[in-house]
User: Fold this.
Amino acid sequence: MLLELKGIRKSFGGVAALRDGTLSVEAGEAHLLMGENGAGKSTLMKIAAGLLQPDGGEILWKGKKVRFRTPAEAAANGIAMVHQESLLARHLSVAENIFLGREERLPFGWVKRRQMIEKAARIIEEHHFPLRAEWMVDRLSPAGKQMVEICRAIQQGTNLLIFDEPTSSLSAAETDEVFRIVKTLKLQNAGVIYITHRLDELREVGDRVTVLRDGQTVHTDALSNLDLDRLIQLMVGREVASIYERKAIPPGEEILRVEGLNRKGVLRDISFSVRAGEIVGLAGLIGAGRTELCRALFGLDGVDSGEVKIAGKPVRVRSARQGVSAGLALIPEDRQRSGLAALLPISHNMTLASVDRISKLGFLNHAAERDISTDYIGRLRLKCSSARQAAGKLSGGNQQKVVIAKWLVRGARVFLFDEPTRGIDVGAKAEVFEVMDSLARSGAAILMVSSEMAELLQTADRILVMRQGRISGELPGHTTQEAIMRLAGFDAEVPGAAENDTPGETIQ
Amino acid sequence: MIQRLLPFVTLVALFIGLAIASPNFLSASNLSSVVRQTAVINIMALGMTLVIIAGGIDLSVGSILAVGGLFGTMSISHGASIPMGIMVGVLAGTVCGAANGAMVVGFRVNPFIVTLGTMGIFRGVALIASNGLPVHDLPPSFSFLGEGNLFHVPFVLWLLVLCGAGMHILLEHTRLGRYAFAMGSNNAAAVYAGVPVGFHTVAVYAIAGLLTGLAGMVEASRLLTGQPTAGLGYELSAIAAVVIGGGSLYGGEGSVVGTLVGAFIMGLLANGSDLLGTNPYWQQVVIGAAIIIAVTVDEFHKRRVRK
Assistant:
């Protein structure tokens, strides 16, 4: 056995995150770690990687009892972790981040800069990532940062590599590269622990699986002995309708119409429409311009030409404020950074876009606010102690519901969902889809960006596919992943594409 | 909860401790003087609370205090009535604050930098306008604002209660207050929700300037002088009061009660060291330590809550 974790316990401020974390991984094995959000997966892995100290339990490394007090101690044993959230130095280059803390040193603290960049470039090239060693990490998209994390971990984790949801921000091609990395590591007789929410990618990489629920290991087995329904059941501890299924409704009048939208270097001649009651999926690789399209429609980024009509009326949206007034709602990709005011109570978050409706002459009507938030907490089945609880203390799925509720309170008509289920567990995902469905039923027009194709196939009535800033085609909702991938330019993906499309970069 | 209560407990403990240690502490004249001494910082700190909650900072309040006090007293010495003079001082402070806000929004520059700059600019304006000389020819009745009593209680206490209540209502019961919390907690989320962030940022700094202008007039009234050099270093005391009272320099957190408690803790520390005859230089050390302790306790608590 390479690494054994036995009965690991860990509490934060009296709240038990882990009660009995047990997991073992062999050399040459890819071990999946699964469980709902808050089950303690990341905590357990951070303990294995030396980032957190356990309150109790045993860690055995190659049969010997150990304790990693710092990540450096773990790294000295060849253990490294690819983190879910980016732990990079933002103002350093890609190369500097890859070698941070492990630079080859010369006297007087000099660093061999050119050599480091060359080495980093070799690693990047080997994995076909659309990155350059000299780029500043600050300018990278979440996906780009993830790739840097991966490059960095590969450098250090020669014996055991831990991936914490590495693909949640990656496109299909990049995800495949991660799988290839895992396979290579296995061949090199290294151990791999892989945390994921994406049920469709399990079979690609895993040998065995350990399921955590409420801080306890509930099951460990060979993956071939478990089917999907059984896995979901183990994770949530109850039977659930295995995968969400939506019944389409006959669409109503046209709510959103976009004609010839252009933004230099980002969006090219975008035209489409969404009708009331429709959920239109937006597929594409990272950097294809999906998020940028949402931002432009909502007024966060300017456009060079094109026309947008809402319910038949042409609208000019030049700021988020005008977007909101025009009846648009954006549920952003990055919930923590731009969706949620984490310190503020749930009720304040819910009414943030509608403060004018709960106030008179600038004074707030707290009773009205309380009624509204209580109403939406019930409607969305939000799990919280009260409407006054800080929104940041909720689980990912419930946070997302709060962000959505903000727009329900506002009464928006066009909803732009950008990766609405990222970092959300299985049970909460189905609930988010239910909310979208009931929105559609009440006559809203929905545009949904998602990198999980299975998700698009289940929920969308139609799917638009973007490629290098253009809409490269439209598919019916019951299409196949292969058809989407073909339009997205999946097969044409080459490393050189970085030069004209720079998918690693975002326009922020 | 403990970290929320800590400032209150500290204040009460300090109060009881001083009452036991010094027989003069509880005398009406001593308590009035504590109130008068802390009123200026208190009123400024109320404005600072709003700015800090909105995610900003204002380093220029010491200079704004001088501008407000100076312009107000200059207009009185040029024949304006006392209420009119106070209005001029308040207005001058408001204009300075609005200028801060407008530059933060317009230039998209960090408020720390903008107000570091205006700290010098406003001070320079006060020195230029007065030619560096204090305004002395003020009617004795002007001292009522800072030194007078109303119903046997210092007038500034009434003023402070009024400003405190007003700020509390503004923070908890108005749209502006709600937007201030939202902008401070997550500015991007506020923008995405369609909040007119620019307008409200200017409003927040203008209100802080208004209160600072008023504090400037109180300071001038207490000394019966308009000093272009008034308020040097006051910005740090105002920020300290907010932070000791539970405000977060990251924005989104803070309260009127907390700030008042924070300012009175510093006031009692100063008063206590006067009464007990300890070396006044130690005051600086104790107040500095109080700031670090308050923030450390707060951070420790947050780290435990965070996963």
